[in-house]
Amino acid sequence: MTDTADIATLKDRACAHIDALAPQLIAVSHSIHDQPELGFEERHAHRILTEAISHHAPDAVLEPQACGLETAFVAQAGPAGPTVGIVCEYDALPGLGHACGHNIIAAAGLGAGLALATMADEVGHRVKILGTPAEEGGGGKVVMIDAGAFDDVDVAMMVHPAGVELARMSTLAIHRCRVRYRGRAAHAAAAPNKGVNALDGAVLGYNAIAALRQHIADEERIHGVFIAGGDKPNIVPSHAETEWYVRSPTMEGLRMLMDRVTLCLEGGATAAGCDVEIEWLDPHYADMVDNEPLADCYVANAAALGREVQMPTSHTAVRGSTDMGNVSHVVPSIHPMIKVAPDDTAIHTEDFARCAVSSAGDRGVIDGAKAMAMTAIDVWLVPSLLGSIAAASPVRPNRSPRA
User: Fold this and answer.
1) Which string of DSSP letters, residue by residue, matches 153-165?
2) What's residue 2's pLDDT?
3) What is the CA radius of gyration of the chain?
């Protein structure tokens, strides 16, 4: 089954299946939204997603606690052959709930995966639904990459909600660090000369990074906060702690920027005379390498649904970091943005959280599921497409790229 008419028929069937599931998919989206859970704690979301798979795709092979993670899952249907990975996310943000719309990502991925599971045996190819916890900082996908969950996946895809329709997200590689300064306490009035001020070391390191910001690339970002800075003003602070996010458009740029940040932090400690410990917190997130032939295919299928997907510009780009970037370094991948909110509504805001369960958000669930399912059918059946996708992706090791 490889001619155009047959492919169109399969796409129609997939879309009809998703329409039939629409009430359940929207209910899943709203339920996840109503019970936001932080990374690696997404037990409610994990339960309703795996229960939906067991109910609607009973022949799929489901691993409910995949890769040693309580809230990860992998479900697959179809024989060995070209394998499409459909990625779900479902963790929330502290204090803001689903202000990134992961409830939409989860439900759209579920819908696409269930539709593809109904025809995988018939077509002779495989779909793999990957439930990936803790995108908001925990790096569930990185753990799953290293555990081999993506080793047999030929392409991977997900859709991310936004206030604009884009073929890709403008991602930045990111690594976090925790910095601990150790000095010596003393009475700040009676014997300041006997103290070593750890807070001074943290402040001088902060100011050094502030100066560094004038001399980094426009797309690079460094931002930090003070976690601790002493106990009382009349005690020379013996301890201080800061946390930093360092971002760059590429892994190579990230490594160089990390070195420069380290020098700033060490310089502040040296000037204050205190000790410093810099801990780079794993996992880091790599930049997203979008596969152009696969993205073009998604754009065409989204257009068939009435969605006009654009390339990002300086005014429309959505910037951020995601562990889907790590996936894209081992598997040809896409991470398009689907519009579910008024123009220019920023993600990670209370306004966006409300949009994630609006009528536009619900349409994003259904259209996102359909666009991914249709794209997967093209990957399965369009002659030479899989070869073009592979040719557009540099060969990379089947493990997460290292900082």
Assistant:
1) -SEEE--EEESS-
2) 58
3) 23
